Amino acid sequence: MQKRKDTKMANNIYIAKQPILDKDSDVFAYELLYRDTMDTSNIKNRKRATVSVLSSVLNKFGVDNLISNHKAFIKADEEFIMHSVLSTIPKEYFIFSLQFETKPSDKVKKKIAKLHDDGYIFAVNDAILDESIMEIYRDIMEYISYIKVDVNTPRENLSLLDGLDIEVISTKVEDIEKEKKAIEMGSQYLQGFFFCKPSVQKQEKIDPELENIIRLCNKIMQDCSVDELVEEFERSPVVSMQLLKFINSGLFHFRQKLSSIKQVVTLVGKTKLTQWLMLMIYSAPRGEGIANELLFERVKNRTYIMHEVAKNIDKSIVSNAYFVGVISLMDTLFSVSKRTLMRELNVDRDIKEAILRKDGVLGEIYKFVLALEEFDEKHIDGFVEKYKISKEALEDITLSASMKHPAI
Fold this sequence. Notes:
This protein has an 8-stranded mixed β-barrel with strand order 1-2-3-4-5-6-7-8. The longest helix has 25 residues, at about 290-315. The protein is elongated, with a radius of gyration of 28 Å. Strand 1 and strand 2 form a beta hairpin. It is of the alpha/beta class. Helix 7 runs antiparallel to helix 11 (about 270-285), helix 8 crosses helix 10 and helix 17 runs antiparallel to helix 18. The protein has 19 helices and 9 strands. It has helices spanning about 45-60, 65, 80, 105-115, 130-135, 175-185, 210-220, 225-235, 235-245, 260-270, 270-285, 290-315, 320-325, 330-335, 340-345, 350-355, 360-375, 375-385, 390-400, and strands at about 10-20, 25-35, 70-75, 95-100, 120-125, 145-150, 165-170, 190, 200-205.
């Protein structure tokens, strides 16, 4: 089936990164920059841009993937420095490039001093170094470890840093002449287009509503308490509203009047809730109707077979096998990679290993179902022999799966 691009469900996150080199041309650090597309940086709110970059590094791309064992320079204005979110950020990965337009207030200076004592590292962001820049940062220079100096700064202005324990990063180094000038200025580090233009990193992201649904499925698979499940539903009002509509659709007939999500969850039961969540994921109208319908039939068949095969192997993993079946086709539905899904949706390790590597018992069942779909007789025979599944039982399972509405 051809993948479709769905702008609602599979948007992208962008970060531009540019290396900062030492005088031996080895990477010292990276500067990470906000991007709202592959080509643009439409910054309306500096603090939000900084938070977006940090969130993307820590929660989406991953520190190791993006900067390896190097540090990253991140721009930071006064509003961001004063925000409580800063105390939650692991300081060992980042250097905060201060981007002040006026002399900081006493409150900001005290906060920087406190953060410095706590081990946070600060730099002065890219600027033509002159008296006006020194005036802005003079009172906090003792907390500054690096200053990013535009290479077009007059050489004599570097004397303004005499006596200060600050390392210089020359920026906007765009040709060999400017590289030579930067070195003559005594810069310890160099950054600019002459070495490397910022490369834009793209990462898929998952729609928040899908994340909520999968988080609910995951909670059920973890055999959480009813109260924990209710709490998760209450965090997702849109999903809760759809659940109530489903309950009142005429498919259920309860004697008592429904008055709470907890009551609904208790009456419906975890198995039916999982099936309903799967229905929500796969039957929402996206793209061409017939393609969506075929995918829904495919996932119904797959989940049913995995459920029934798991019953023959180990009844304790039946729900997990069903869940693997549910999420195994989401990459096709939402045009995102399986690896992105596993990272974004925070599923259990056994399920992640089954989906990505086909490891463990769940992975073997998943691989077996794929073999059935591809008519791989050799793999099918090896699996049923290993797990002592009779041909009659297998025929019953596959026949039931092909029915319009297999009962689970």
